[in-house]
Design brief:
5-stranded antiparallel sheet, hydrolase, Acyl-CoA thioesterase, long-chain fatty acyl-CoA hydrolase activity, Thiol Ester Dehydrase, Chain A, alpha+beta
C-alpha cells in the first residue's frame, strides 16, 4: 500500500468534462480485496454515456469499447472522478474518451489516474436499429 501512496499525483484534465463521481464500497471488491474490474467498467460505461446522451437525444446503446486500460487498482473508499470528452460524432454514433482518477482515502486532494477507455455509442430507434443523430444536436463541451 505504501507504494500506492508514494506514486506521483496526476493533474486532472482540463480538456474533459467531469461527468460522474462515485465511491466504491466493500460489496464491489474482488477476491483480492480490490474493486472488481467489471464494476469499474460498468461505471465507465455510465460516465461515457453522459455526453453522447446530449447529442443523440434519445435511446442509444454501447456498441464498442475499443480500448480499456487499467493503470492502478481501485480501493474501497477511493473517490473516483470520471472525465469524458467527445472524440467523434458520426451519422449514427458518438465515440468518447473516459479517464478515471482516484483520490485515495488516505491522501485526499491528490489524484492518481486509475483507468481510461474509448467507447462508442450508437443512436437507436424503438426497435433497436441504428438511427441518424439529429442534425440540430447541441454541441458537446470539449468535443
Amino acid at each position: 500500500m505504501s507504494d500506492l501512496l508514494s506514486r506521483p499525483t496526476a493533474a486532472l484534465p482540463t480538456d474533459k468534462e467531469l461527468v460522474l463521481k462515485v465511491i466504491p464500497m466493500p460489496a464491489d471488491t474482488n477476491g483480492n480485496g480490490d474493486i472488481f474490474g467489471g464494476w469499474v467498467m460498468a461505471q465507465v460505461d455510465l460516465a461515457g454515456a453522459v455526453l453522447p446522451a446530449r447529442i443523440v437525444q434519445g435511446r442509444m446503446a454501447t456498441v464498442a469499447v475499443k480500448e480499456f486500460v487499467f493503470k492502478q487498482p481501485v480501493r474501497v473508499g477511493d473517490i473516483l472522478s470520471f472525465y469524458s470528452s467527445v472524440v467523434r460524432v458520426g451519422r449514427t454514433s458518438v465515440t468518447v474518451d473516459v479517464e478515471v482518477y482516484a483520490e485515495r482515502f488516505a491522501t485526499q486532494g491528490s489524484y492518481v489516474k486509475v483507468t481510461e477507455a474509448l467507447l462508442t455509442y450508437v443512436a437507436i430507434d424503438g426497435q433497436g436499429h441504428p438511427r441518424p443523430i439529429p442534425a440540430q444536436a447541441p454541441a458537446a463541451p470539449g468535443g
